[in-house]
Structures are given as structure tokens and as C-alpha cells.
Amino acid sequence: DRQRTLAISWGSGVRAPGTWIVWLVGYVERDGNLWFFALNLDGRTYAEARDRRTALARRALEAVGALPPAP
Predict the structure, then answer these.
(1) How does residue 2 score in pLDDT terms, banded at 50, 70 and 90?
(2) What distance in Å separates the CA atoms of residue 24 and residue 1, rounded to the nearest whole number?
(3) Which residues fall within 8 angstroms of residue 3, CB to CB, at 6 or more apart?
(4) CB under 8 Å, gap of 24 or more: what pairs does 49-55 form?
(5) Nearest to residue 10, comparing CAs of 46, 36, 38?
(6) pLDDT tens for each residue of 30-58
């Protein structure tokens, strides 16, 4: 398996009643390559926004080759 470093910071808050905002920033270093990423989105509940944040970030990083496909 190829060695990689994944560094992430994330957060969330209530934007308005019934609207959560979540964000995620970080980088992946793998095989001498470096990818930076940032994601900011909102949802009706924290769980909805959190789950979308994780799924979108994972798909994007897989698409550019920063992460291997999920099993």
C-alpha cells in the first residue's frame, strides 16, 4: 500500500433556525503529490450536512487520485 498523509480540520454551526453550516479543509500527501481541499455547505440538520460533507469530500479526493476508492 502506498503511504499517505491526510490532515483535516472541520467545524459546524447554526446559520439560522433549521439550517446548519459545516466545513472541511485539509490536504492529502501521497507519493510525492500534494492536494489541498476545502468544502463548505449547509443542510437542514447537523447529521444531514455532516454526512454530505464526508461523502462529497471522499468522492472528490478519490476522483483526483488523492485517496484510493472506498472498499
Answers:
(1) low
(2) 26
(3) 30, 31
(4) 49/12, 49/20, 49/21, 49/22, 50/12, 50/22, 52/22, 53/10, 53/22, 53/23, 53/24
(5) 38
(6) 989 999 999 999 999 999 999 999 999 99
| Cell 472541511 sits on residue | 24
DSSP-based helix, strand, coil % in the chain, nearest 5 = 25, 50, 25
In Å, how far are 12, 25, 42, 56 from 48, measured between CA atoms?
12, 18, 9, 12
- CB 56 within 8 Å of CB 18: no
Q: What confidence category does residue 70 fall into, taking pLDDT thresholds of 50, 70 and 90?
A: confident
The amino acid at residue 45 is T
